[in-house]
């Protein structure tokens, strides 16, 4: 009888995510990301078709995250001051213009202009995170931010497929995917205009009028914040590892397993499915059960394990592998290799010899991808959720903007570091270095990130719920 009475108790509304509030921003971000992820695999080849050398391709690749580094805090602060919806619309219009310029580009300067414009306006993720924060409670925030991460996972699975299909149907016309991306961007603008409701009303904006919009000093001030400074540093440092992992993985599989673009596409889909599962559902349950602080520990540990297991992947090519066929595929000029990392064209990658084929290497790598994907899926939403629970509500948009800017800075630096390590010490060295970095971060996080206000609130809610029984 006691159990029946306990089961009949209504669910605490603080524990239940309001999906009706979250759904519009989830769909908007997903469609917005489809535009971005359609372009990512195309860009190195687009630049090559415009006579860019390897250095220029690397510089072009760095332009987007560098502009995000500038744009994310700017948009975050502006959303605190003027509301989420108008700033999101302005940034989406900028992204649309960037895609149109990209589709019309017939020279390298236009290509750079397109990436700079898209990078500045593509920093709207900080505004989307602020919408999620406005629409959730402290008990459901990690799950809400996790759903935003799930949109990323879905986008990075579906976007390259759309790019591949549009290139195939157009005879590898590089302009067509850019216009397809612009169409998705226009769709996201319409959804924001007609569907998204403002979550940061006039009554919440008064305290922001005396604050500067953005400066480098604001980043250093945030890093020195006693409650969240360490979390912001942790966000940057873990992305050096995870962002580098994402960029170098295709080079590693090419060198170690002889995997071509099609094989890597299957691997990326596998990783994306795990990330979507984690961020779309599991992270909410884990957050309520263990709390964000322990989730950060779990994410760092799992990602470190995944890096180490990846480094130990046996050198064994897939069944049916042919060095001659793979060499021909990589050497054909003008063929779009949709899932290849940009750094492939910068690094001399050794291709495996014939005669050592089997499934052992692939199966090992798939196992390694499980903890790597879980760890990568956990870290960003759990760190950002913890940040929002330890600062004043009026500072949430700006602080999440700084968090996104640090992510962009890490994304600009990570492939340079990973590529240098790959070239200097072989395909395993970057993964060993990242495993060590993550292990050190785990030790530092365990020692320095102490229980905060959010855990006291959670205990109070738990006691209140127990008292209600």
What features would you describe in this structure?
The protein has 469 residues and is mostly helical. The chain has a single domain, classed as Up-down Bundle (Growth Hormone, Chain: A). It contains 18 helices and no strands. Helix 2 packs antiparallel against helix 7 (125-134) and helix 12 runs antiparallel to helix 13. It is globular.
What's the gyration radius in Å? 22 Å
Q: Give the overall pLDDT as a whole number.
A: 76
What level of helicity do the residues show? over 70%
Give the distance, in angstroms, between the N- and C-terminal Cα atoms: 13 Å
Structural class: mainly alpha
Number of strands: 0
- Count structural domains: 1
What's this, in brief?
With 469 residues, the chain is an all-alpha fold. It contains 18 helices and no strands. It has a single domain (16-198, 212-468), classed as Growth Hormone, Chain: A (Up-down Bundle), CATH 1.20.1250.
Keywords for this entry:
single chain; 469 residues; mainly alpha; Growth Hormone, Chain: A; 18 helices; globular; disordered N terminus
Break the fold down into its secondary structure elements and pairings.
Blueprint: H1 2-8, H2 19-39, H3 43-49, H4 54-82, H5 84-104, H6 108-121, H7 125-134, H8 141-169, H9 175-194, H10 216-223, H11 229-257, H12 261-290, H13 292-311, H14 323-331, H15 360-388, H16 396-425, H17 429-448, H18 453-468
Helix pairs in contact: 2-7, 2-8, 2-9, 3-4, 4-5, 4-6, 4-7, 4-16, 5-6, 5-7, 5-9, 7-8, 7-16, 8-12, 8-15, 11-15, 11-16, 11-17, 12-13, 12-15, 13-15, 13-17
């Amino acid at each position: 009888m006691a159990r029946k009475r306990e089961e009949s108790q209504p669910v605490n509304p603080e524990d239940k995510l309001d999906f009706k509030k979250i759904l519009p921003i989830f769909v908007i971000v997903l469609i917005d990301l489809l535009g971005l992820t359609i372009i990512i695999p195309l860009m190195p080849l687009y630049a090559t078709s415009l006579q860019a050398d390897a250095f220029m391709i690397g510089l072009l690749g760095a332009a987007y995250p560098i502009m995000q580094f500038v744009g994310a805090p700017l948009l975050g602060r502006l959303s605190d001051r003027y509301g989420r919806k108008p700033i999101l619309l302005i940034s989406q219009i900028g992204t649309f213009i960037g895609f149109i310029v990209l589709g019309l580009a017939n020279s390298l300067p236009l290509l750079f202009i397109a990436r700079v414009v898209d990078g500045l306006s593509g920093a709207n993720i900080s505004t989307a995170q602020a919408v999620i924060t406005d629409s959730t409670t402290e008990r459901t925030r990690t799950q809400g931010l996790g759903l935003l991460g799930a949109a990323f996972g879905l986008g990075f699975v579906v976007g390259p497929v759309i790019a591949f299909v549009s290139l195939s149907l157009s005879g590898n016309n590089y302009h067509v995917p850019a216009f397809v991306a612009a169409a998705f961007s226009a769709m996201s603008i319409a959804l924001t205009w007609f569907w998204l409701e403002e979550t940061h009303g006039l009554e919440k904006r008064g305290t922001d009028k005396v604050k500067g919009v953005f400066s480098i000093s604001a980043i250093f001030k945030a890093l020195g914040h006693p409650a969240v400074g360490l979390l912001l540093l942790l966000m940057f440092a873990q992305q050096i590892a995870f962002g580098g992992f994402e960029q170098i993985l295709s080079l590693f599989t090419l060198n170690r397993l002889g995997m071509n673009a099609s094989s890597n596409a299957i691997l990326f889909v596998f990783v994306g499915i795990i990330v979507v599962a984690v961020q779309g559902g599991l992270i909410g349950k884990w957050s309520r059960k263990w709390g964000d602080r322990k989730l950060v520990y779990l994410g760092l540990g799992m990602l470190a394990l995944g890096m180490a297991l990846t480094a130990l992947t046996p050198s064994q090519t897939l069944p049916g592998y042919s060095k001659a066929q793979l060499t021909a595929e990589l050497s054909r000029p003008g063929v779009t290799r949709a899932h290849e990392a940009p750094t492939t064209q910068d690094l001399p990658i050794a291709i495996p010899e014939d005669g050592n084929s089997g499934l052992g290497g692939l199966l090992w790598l798939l196992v390694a991808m499980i903890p790597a994907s879980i760890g990568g899926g956990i870290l960003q939403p759990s760190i950002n959720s913890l940040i929002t629970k330890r600062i004043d509500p009026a500072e949430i948009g700006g602080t999440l903007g700084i968090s996104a800017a640090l992510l962009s800075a890490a994304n600009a630096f990570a492939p340079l570091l990973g590529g240098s390590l790959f070239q200097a010490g072989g395909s395993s060295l970057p993964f060993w270095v990242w495993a060590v970095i993550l292990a050190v971060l785990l030790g530092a996080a365990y020692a320095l990130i102490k229980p905060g206000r959010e855990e006291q609130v959670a205990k109070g809610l738990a006691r209140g719920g127990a008292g209600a029984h």
